[in-house]
Each structure stands twice: as C-alpha cells, then as structure tokens.
Amino acid sequence: VEYFREYYSAHCLDKTVLYPGVTEVLVHYAGRKKRMAIVTNKDQEFTHKILAGLEVEKYFQSRIGASEGDKKKPHPDLLHKALRELKSDPAQTVIIGDSPADIEAGQKAGTKTCGVGYGIGEPEKVRNVKPDFWVDAPGELIELF
C-alpha cells in the first residue's frame, strides 16, 4: 500500500484527463451559480491533486474524497457530507455517476440520480440500478438540467 500511494501520488495525472465536453458543462453551471461537489471513493489526497492538476478545483464548492475509516459509496455517508457542506436539500440535488455505486449512494441519500454512458463504468450495470435520468455525453447535462 505504501508503494502504491507513493507511485500513484507521483503519477496520478499521467493519463488522467477530462472527458470531452466536461469543461463546458462545468463552466455552464458555474455561470448559473449552481453549487457543485465532487464525491469520490478515491483518497482525499489524490482527489485534491487530480482536481488541481486538471484545473477544475475552482468549480467545486465541496470536494469529498474518502479518508481512512470512511464508508465508501454505495454507502451514502460521503454524499451526506457534501450535502451538509453545500447546505443542499437532497430532494433538490442530483448525483451524476458512471457506476452503480454512485447511483445507489444517491438513491440512499435521497437525491435524484443521473447515470452516464461515458466514463470508466459499465453502462448496462449503471442502467440496471435505475437512475432517474440518463445521458450518453457530457454536453447532454446542459440540456437536461
């Protein structure tokens, strides 16, 4: 684990890029004063490093990565933390995710859910947990919400 952490810290941005269209979505919602959070099972240290390296940290008012001892998605704890930080009503919030764990966490937290057909997840598995909304490309999020 120690070797992995050291290696990943040095190389976590080597092949990490934003999907085409994501920056436009972030700019769109930031311009409309929408509060956004990123909630990931990835370690908090790496989450901040990646967001800063991709130059998107500024778009998120809450940046939640897992810390030792945290219950990870699909458990809703990390989402609850983001909701508290944003002072957001779960019923007025949507989680957008590429994995069943993302959608299940949103369902357990009482948020709306949106599955995506892009990302590292398997779209069929994401569809099987029945998200409220579905998009195949990031730009569709601008039209949907």
Record keyword descriptors for this entry.
3-stranded parallel β-sheet; alpha/beta; two-stranded parallel sheet; 7 helices; 145 residues; globular
Task: Give an account of the 3D structure.
This protein has 145 residues and is an alpha/beta fold. Helices cover 42% and strands 17% of the residues. It has a three-stranded parallel sheet with strand order 3-4-5. The longest helix has 10 residues. The chain is globular. The relative contact order is 0.14.
Question: How do the helices and strands line up, and which of them pair or pack?
Answer:
Layout: H1 2-11, H2 22-31, E1 37-43, H3 44-53, E2 62-66, H4 77-86, E3 94-97, H5 100-109, E4 112-116, H6 123-128, E5 133-135, H7 140-144
Parallel strand pairs: 1-2, 3-4, 4-5
Brief overview, please?
The protein is of the alpha/beta class.
- How many H/I helical runs? 7
Tell me what portion of residues adopts beta-strand conformation. 15-25%
Report low-confidence residues grouped into runs of 5 or more: none
Structural class: alpha/beta
**Sheet with the most strands?**
3 strands, parallel
How helix-rich are the residues, as a percent range?
40-55%
Oligomerization status of the protein chains: single chain
What is the mean predicted local confidence, pLDDT? Answer: 97
Count every beta strand, where a strand is a DSSP E run of 2 or more residues.
5
Cα separation of the termini: 40 Å
The Cα radius of gyration reads 15 Å
- Helix/strand order: HHEHEHEHEHEH
Strand order of the largest sheet: 3-4-5
Name the overall outline.
Answer: globular
